[in-house]
Specification:
By secondary structure, this protein is an alpha+beta fold. The chain has one domain (53-303). Helix content is 27%, strand content 26%. The protein has 5 helices and 9 strands, in the order ααβαβαββββαβββ. It has helices at residues 2-13, 27-80, 88-92, 150-154, 223-228, and strands at residues 82-85, 125-142, 158-172, 184-191, 195-196, 204-206, 242-256, 261-268, 290-296. The longest helix has 54 residues, at 27-80. The chain is elongated, with a radius of gyration of 37 Å.
Length: 304
């Protein structure tokens, strides 16, 4: 009994062990940590955002410069085949056969003469450059003025032929979409003359495009008057104007009918790849690359 009493007494009066402090941070420590983290991370995040933004702009600039160079090379090769280049006045004046010096082809080409794909409105599609070029058709007909068959072609019995084509370049802002930006684009329209069969009236080895009509050099007047009074044929145009390059800011040309030369200046808009309604900013000129060329055509018509 005595032993049991002693055990009970010892258990009852045994001093409690001190409580160990629990782990964690105080509210003040958490606040200080958050403030320090914000002071350190905010500049780092801003730095990373600037790096990513700069990278996107540089990629857009590089892609735009590459496409601009490809477009200007294409236009250069096209103009080198030109036999007659219209000046700016001819692209803004309408046909006037009664007064050839004041005549132009504005109402004979799209969009005034008829809407075509990528160029159907005068408010959004403007002709900038137009010229006639010599188009070569390989193996167009057989040497005896008959149709060139596959067998005749394989036997080397076919001849090449050429015809004149009318080419018009436009600055267009039509139909911005997921494909096209809301910046301007350069569109190209070509009207091919085909290859006529000399043995049969109104027969062709290669038919011309609808609306095509050959110019007439037999009429009186200067070469400029003869070409500036050209008028399309009755059928409506059904040839589309295909987009050559997008993200364009300016497209300017100066042409001389006397020397059959054209100067073309194109300024692109790389920022339109990154944001809507991006306009030219003189403080951001690297993102609006430009290039200028001067090309002299063949001048075959002018030499006659």
């Amino acid at each position: 009994m005595m032993n049991a009493f002693r055990v009970l007494l010892n258990n009852r009066y045994q001093p409690a062990k001190p409580t160990e402090p629990s782990g964690g941070f105080t509210l003040i420590e958490l606040l200080v940590s958050v403030i320090l983290a914000a002071l350190v991370l905010t500049p780092l995040l801003s730095f990373m955002i600037n790096i990513l933004s700069t990278e996107r702009r540089e990629q857009a600039k590089a892609a735009t410069e590459e496409e601009l160079q490809a477009a200007i090379d294409y236009i250069t090769r096209d103009l080198e085949q030109a036999v007659y280049i219209y000046d700016t006045d001819a692209l803004t004046a309408n046909s006037n056969t009664a007064n050839p010096p004041n005549s132009g082809i504005n109402d004979q080409i799209p969009p005034v003469a008829g809407a075509v794909a990528s160029c159907n409105s005068t408010t959004t599609c403007t002709p900038v450059l137009a010229f006639w070029k010599r188009e070569v058709y390989e193996d167009a007909f057989k040497y005896d003025n008959t149709t060139c068959t596959t067998t005749a072609q394989n036997n080397g019995e076919c001849n090449d032929a050429f015809a004149y084509s009318l080419v018009v370049y436009y600055r267009t802002t039509e139909n911005p979409s997921d494909i096209w930006s809301d910046a301007a684009r350069i569109a190209r329209f070509e009207l091919n003359g085909g290859v006529a069969n000399p043995t049969t009236s109104d027969s062709y080895f290669v038919p011309p495009d609808d609306g095509y009509k050959a110019f007439d050099l037999s009429q009186s007047g200067s070469l400029e008057e003869k070409l500036n009074t050209w008028q399309k044929d009755t059928p409506a145009y059904d040839t589309p104007a295909f987009v050559l390059v997008d993200h364009i800011d300016q497209f300017l040309t100066e042409a001389s009918t006397t020397t059959n030369t054209a100067q073309v200046t194109i300024r692109a808009n790389a920022l339109s790849r990154l944001q809507d309604n991006a306009t030219f900013n003189s403080n951001l000129t690297p993102f609006f690359p430009s290039t200028t060329i001067q090309v002299q055509g063949l001048g075959i018509l002018g030499s006659r």
